[in-house]
Automatic annotation (TrEMBL):
Membrane topology: Multi-pass membrane protein
Keyword Transmembrane: yes
Protein name as catalogued: PGG domain-containing protein
Source organism of the structure: Aegilops tauschii subsp. strangulata (Goatgrass)
Gene Ontology CC: one annotated term: plasma membrane
């Protein structure tokens, strides 16, 4: 984060021979990844368990023929889709986290990063599925539907804004400029130097962009779902 922030601010490297550049090894972050992977694997397993059990405790219950009473309802169908996404992404995240702990290769870092995105999608899908389940059994005339959607929207908006502020080094456009590149030759040289010396920085900037895009999509879905008629 600090490296990207310095780049966005226009900071420059001191003059140095290219063959004397030492690649950042990041031993501390390797230990952090191992500990974090263990904790995230527990969380992803719990999400998968909850989402899996929700598929057998559907809103509206089952009829005498064994089929769901709300079969065909748009909110019920949305609940099934979101719950399936939550189960799938949480299981994938768990597998990637377990693989990352067993593997010591550089590719395990990619698996760790991808697993965090899958887990975040699973958590948001589970929350959206919870809202769809409520919307499926609540009448459109009931003001609780809109109230609950606004409550969920407000809570997630505050959470995602705080997380984005903590994760984003400066402005969103600045991170995009770092990834895309600039017309200035000194800035391009700085970016090449950063890529050689701090190889994780590019991954970090890319994942900040993905994180913000996913959050925006989730907030839009909650806002739209709260106003949809049955």
């Amino acid at each position: 984060k600090l490296v990207v922030k310095l780049y966005i601010s226009g900071a420059r490297f001191r003059p140095q021979r290219q063959d004397h550049i030492e690649k950042w090894k990041g031993q501390d972050i390797m230990k952090w990844r191992e500990t974090t992977s263990k904790n995230l694997a527990i969380v992803s397993t719990l999400v998968a368990t909850i989402a899996f059990s929700a598929a057998f405790n559907v809103p509206g219950s089952y009829g005498s023929d064994g089929k769901a009473n709300l079969d065909g309802d748009r909110f019920y169908n949305a609940f099934l889709v979101l719950d399936t996404i939550a189960v799938t992404t949480s299981v994938v995240a768990t597998i990637l986290l377990i693989y990352g702990r067993a593997s010591r290769t550089n590719r395990s870092w990619i698996g760790f990063i991808v697993s965090m995105h899958f887990l975040w999608v699973a958590l948001n899908s589970m929350m959206l599925a919870f809202f769809m389940a409520i919307a499926a059994v609540v009448s459109d005339k009931n003001p609780m539907k809109i109230a609950l959607s606004q409550l969920m929207y407000g809570g997630l908006y505050i959470l995602m804004t705080l997380l984005a502020c903590f994760a984003t080094p400066g402005s969103f456009l600045g991170v995009v400029r770092f990834l895309v590149g600039c017309c200035s030759e000194p800035l391009r040289r700085s970016k090449r130097r950063i890529s050689r010396q701090f190889p994780f920085v590019v991954y970090y900037a890319f994942n900040v962009i993905v994180f913000i895009i996913v959050n925006t999509i989730v907030l839009v879905l909650i806002s739209v779902a709260g106003r949809l008629p049955r």
